[in-house]
Structure prediction request, 675 residues.
Amino acid sequence: MDISLISLEVGVALIGIIILLTDLWTPAENKARLGWIAIGGLITVFCYNFSTFDQATAGINGYSKDGLAVYFQGFFVMAAILVILLTMSYASRVSSGISELYALICFALVGMCFAAGASNFIMLFVAVELITTSFYVLTSFERHRLRSLEAGIKYLIMGATSSAIMVFGIALIYGTTGTLDFNEVSRSLLTPAGLSMQLLLHLGALMVLGGLIFKLGAIPFQLWVPDVYQGAPIPVTAFLSSGSKAAGIVLIFRTLAEACPSLLDQEWLPKLLSITAGITILYGSLCALRQRNLKRLLGYSSIASAGYILLGIVCLDNIGSQAVLFYLSGYLFGILAAFTIISVVSEESGDEDISILANLHQRSPFMATILTLAIASLAGIPPLAGFLGKFALLRSAFGKLNDQHSSMPWLIGIAMLGIVISLYYYFKIIREIYWGPGLYWKEKKPSAEPLCCPRAAEIALLICLFALIGLGLYPEPILSLAGEATNNLFSSRP
Amino acid sequence: MQDTLFYIFSALTLLCGILVVFNPFSRNPVTSAMFLVLTIISMSGLFVLLKAFFLAAVQILVYAGAVIVLFLFVIMLLDVKEEERRRFQKFGTFMGLISVIGLAAIIINTTNQTFTIANQSEVQSIKETFNQSGAAETKPLGKLLFTEYVLPFEIVSLLLLVAMVGCILLSKRNTSKEEAK
Prediction:
């Protein structure tokens, strides 16, 4: 076994353990600064792994580090760095256990990195469980708050149920093929004995997909999203909406393209996926319209974005998956910038209602500008990263119009409708910043005192700002990376 | 003989499993936990029929022995009177029944169809490969765990660390700052 292949995961796990140990010798007032160790460590480990990693080395059983894995690992490390920066600015609200918070984020990151490279079903399951278990603890982290506890319990029960469905699926796959390796499962269908078992194998694969769609937060496994997003601490919500979601997507790609390519030839699969995508987009967009709680609103909007991601998956080809990868990168920076600012503003006012944003353009022009840009990017306004992501997804869907996908025109129509609806609730946030009346039930004017942004949050916001504009104006590097990552994914397909 | 035993054990597993969550006679959580023990014991009977003796023993030792005892401790430490008084929620029961019946119908239907398509000789050959592999015995199991599946095995150890940190974090005594609130 070649340890250098998994140096990233081993390194990240070590960072987590080191933080847990350093916590013992760190005085309480300095504990929040342990986050800098985590960030420095993550950057070092990622650079080391990136420079020593050699595509030619043989994979470990159950783990392969191909282009797709490297792209997603970069994505996860970026997300974790931004989330740790956000956690550091959130530290004053955490009464105890801030270093455990950093360590658990690192452990969840280990799970995500393993998920990105999983090449057999045991690895897939173990990685997903590592992510979910870390999030069980993270969501109920602020246990003195009833909402956080409620979120934790809901996530625990829903997560356990979806894991049970996934394990059932894996058992069916093992029962029909006698193997758990992705490549061997796909090869087993070439033999006559395997071919006769195809139906049961497809049922198993669908159940695995069901468990993964839970991570994505799409219909019919979306019920946990608003409550958990609202109840969990803001850094955890941000990590759930970026990292955990992306882990589900990479595993969906691997299950569909590598383990069960025969599923792609079934006529009902695009139909099933497009129905799911369509309902998810409509559900997320329509439910977000009436929300006043910022975290809940972003929760529903993240359900809608899970629908757009499924739109790219429905295409079942390389262009569609490239679009999904690019969309995710734009989405990461948009949603993390939004959550960082919500965290800073809600800390000061102790509320999460949308009206706390009132007068932000006078109180902190810096944060108001970035929040406006982030929301505009999420809504898909042209010069920003989110626009190009949605554009790439729709373009790949249009490319499939002439194929036998009879449901595609409907799905594109619904996606367009969803984008138009989303403009309303996204611009509700922007309207609140510049023209908001303040806390309407207290009947007082919104405060005009300047609001200062903590150093860590400032750094995170600057990274997001550059990425949002940079990805929007100069998308070629990331697009070509995403293209390289996915050009072998659906290679067996015409 | 084996077939009869299989049907007896699987019927027991299903029946006791249903009684854990849906017991019309008693709403006492202790009764539910006891039915869970019965479910696990009959499931270990199924493992014996598959010649997976180690798994059967582990099932009884770990689940019926340790885990259920833990469940019982928790149930007895908590106040269970409230739970006993609560009735079944009609809507929840209805939706639960619909999804269980739907899922069962899909699985039974697919299995049936698969085995009508499948050649009997092919099914037999698959059965034989499973019987011969003997992966459920202790020695091959241990070998597999420490050679082929060593990486997932190590990840599970990290998972246990996360669970331990989480338990301590969520159950430790409140610090002074929280008490001040």
